[in-house]
Design brief:
Elements (H helix, E strand, L loop, with lengths): L2 H4 L5 H16 L7 E3 L4 H10 L4 E3 H9 L4 H7 L1 H7 L6 E6 L13 H13 L4 E6 L2 H5 L3 H4 L2 E4 L7 H14 L3 E3 H9 L1 H8 L12
Parallel strand pairs: 1-2, 3-4, 3-5, 5-6
Helix pairs in contact: 11-12
The chain binds iron/sulfur cluster (SF4).
């Protein structure tokens, strides 16, 4: 899809032409069961597909589920940590955890874990505090998670095996700490309704209180 045209940069006629071309392309696919799109395009793709009853999801949702060995429902349930922090039910502090030590050049770009996600979380839960961990399991597991944190926000974990990611999820579940992941939180922050659509192919839905 030409996202510029679909967002109306060339005017209404160009937008309608692009929408029609996109829908024609999708609907002409034989035996098509589901569209997988970039989450950056979800604002224009999702309304079109929803309006035509076409199931769809995003690469980041597919990867969140795949890299965690099928734990997408845990990440969706973990979003409830946001309202629990806002209501004072859980500590207003988020552990942002990345599974590797990649370069973080915050002077020239907005690093997702250090800059972008804290901004999103501050908007969703004003006054929230942050702690970061990068890398090894012992660092990740060393904090007293259940008492200190209202939410653990984990990266996509592309440097972990599904077994390693599963081990981290098991720790969170046994401690009862809400856990979500970068892609799920960013989708939710962009549009709860759109997130609700892209998890439907996995037979999941957000509770109505979150929509
Ligand atoms: S998603 Fe991959 S590259 Fe990014 S922080 Fe996590 S392990 Fe590192």
């Amino acid at each position: 899809m030409d996202l510029g045209a679909a967002r109306g940069k060339g005017g209404d006629v160009a937008r309608e032409t692009e929408e029609a071309r996109f829908l024609d392309t999708v609907q002409s696919q034989r035996d098509m069961r589901c569209v997988i799109t970039d989450s950056q395009a979800i604002d224009v793709v999702s309304p079109l597909l929803m309006g035509n009853d076409i199931p769809h999801t995003t690469f980041s949702i597919v990867m969140a589920n795949y890299l965690s060995g099928g734990a997408l429902s845990t990440f969706v349930d973990g979003l409830e940590g946001l309202s629990q922090m806002a209501s004072g039910e859980r500590p207003k502090k988020v552990l942002i955890s990345e599974a590797c030590n990649h370069d973080r050049i915050t002077s020239t770009c907005d690093d997702i874990g250090l800059v972008q996600l804290p901004k999103v979380l501050e908007r969703l839960v004003p006054g929230v505090e942050f702690q970061h961990t990068f890398g090894r399991d012992d660092e990740f597991l060393s904090d007293d998670l259940s008492k200190e944190y209202g939410l653990v926000l984990h990266c996509g974990g592309c440097m972990l095996s599904p077994q390693q990611m599963r081990a981290r999820i098991d720790v969170m579940e046994s401690l009862g700490v809400p856990l979500t992941n970068y892609g799920v939180l960013l989708s939710y922050a962009k549009s709860a309704a759109a997130l609700n659509e892209v998890i439907k192919p996995y037979d999941l839905e957000l509770p109505s209180s979150m929509l």
